[in-house]
Write a structure and sequence with these properties.
Blueprint lengths: L1 H6 L2 E6 L3 H4 L13 E2 L13 E2 L10 H15 L3 E2 L6 E4 L9 E6 L2 E6 L2 H4 L1
């Protein structure tokens, strides 16, 4: 926010909906052990049936880390670069598709996107 104020940038605050289930275990650099859950009580299922959790879920210890790696992969594939000192801040230099530099920071599923041009943000 201080960067937006100092550089007179437009700012959008974005909350990623259902962020953890949009992440992928495959993006983590380390293997994640398989996780299984029982069906909720009242659910009509054969006894002894369990479900494998295929996507990170809220409450799993590795979910936020997994979301960060998935978001990082997406940002880098979209032309953004890490700042180098802060793992959760990306910069997309002006040029190509966008005429203005775009800054993005993330804290778990809350993001700030900054740019001097409002149309670019939208």
């Amino acid at each position: 926010m201080s960067l937006a104020a100092a550089m007179n940038l437009e700012m959008h605050c974005v909350d990623l909906s259902q962020a953890f289930i949009q992440a992928s275990w495959a993006d983590l650099p380390e293997a994640v052990p398989q996780v299984f859950i029982r069906p909720p009580s009242g659910w009509d299922e054969d006894p002894g049936v369990v479900y494998e959790v295929c996507s990170p879920l809220y409450g799993h210890p590795a979910s936020a880390r997994c979301l960060h790696y998935t978001l990082d992969r997406f940002m880098c594939e979209s032309g953004f670069n890490k700042t180098g000192f802060e793992e959760s801040v990306w910069i997309r230099p002006a040029g190509g598709e966008f005429q203005h530099t775009i800054y993005m920071s993330a804290h778990i599923d809350d993001t700030l996107i900054l740019c001097e041009d409002l149309d670019t943000l939208q």
